[in-house]
Amino acid sequence: MPSNAPVGVFDSGVGGLSVLREIRQLLPAESLLYVADSGHVPYGEKSAEYIRARCQLISEHLLEQGAKALVLACNTATAAAAAELRERYPSLPIVGMEPAVKPAAAATRSGVVGVLATTGTLKSARFAALLDRFASDVRVVTQPCPGLVECIEAGELQAPATRALLLRYVEPLLTEGCDTLILGCTHYPFLRPLLATLVPSSVRLIDTGAAVARQLQRLLERHGLLAAGPAQPTRYWSSGDARRFADVLPLLLGDSANVLSL
């Protein structure tokens, strides 16, 4: 596999663009491919078997496009499908996501950590294992957030309905004394500006996009696959409405690009 081959990134929708943004910042020489499985969003309410099937199909597409590595830019997809993909492609660098339980447990001063995530992530064995491993000394309060992903998919980052929904999910966590909030879905970093207006400035917001970019860098180095550049323009696909994705892309990432149908 040539080192100038692209890295494939995918998510249930546009949320993984928050991870792609971090990869670009850390690894500007890397060419990137992105698939939004928006025809099947959100993953958080679907079965693990369904998600694994979608992840396999998307991975095959990205490998057909010449991807040298895969980034599962979705907590729910990682919990459901990462192990199976690593077994199927043992020589392929594969990076997954997980909620930032470890850094949040280290950062909290009150000893209470809140988690905003999808139902699928919160129910996963992977999340339970994270709590057992890193959160034994803190209290973790979880909040599933149905409907929030759909608001972000529509580009409604500051809409009154989005604000009302986010406030409904955040208020119980603040009432419980959380001083650290984990953004446990890759869509949620796009709501940071809105969230900052709803929580005290002392509340720390944590996501794992930058950590995923660093892990990708480590794996590419280990496999001798770091690109020298220059990077090619990012190519985009969507399994949903490609025009809608193209419309929201400048809002979320500052890109204007042609989006192909998957």
Q: What's the number of domains?
A: 2
Task: Name the poorly predicted regions.
Answer: none
Task: Specify the CATH class of the largest domain.
Answer: Alpha Beta
- The SSE string, one letter per element, is EHEHEHEHEHHEHHEHEHEHE
What does the model show?
Helices cover 44% and strands 16% of the residues. It folds into two domains: 7-97 and 209-261, Rossmann fold, CATH 3.40.50; 101-206, Rossmann fold, CATH 3.40.50.1860. The two termini are 24 Å apart. The relative contact order is 0.20. The strands form two sheets. The protein has a six-stranded parallel beta sheet with strand order 4-3-1-2-9-10, sandwiched between helices. A four-stranded parallel beta sheet has the order 6-5-7-8, with helices on both faces. It has 262 residues and is α/β, with parallel strands linked by helices. Helix 1 (17-26) links the parallel strand 1 (7-11) and strand 2 (32-36). It has helices at 17-26, 48-64, 75-88, 101-107, 119-123, 125-134, 148-153, 160-175, 192-196, 209-222, 242-253, and strands at residues 7-11, 32-36, 69-72, 94-95, 112-117, 139-144, 180-183, 204-206, 235-238, 259-261.
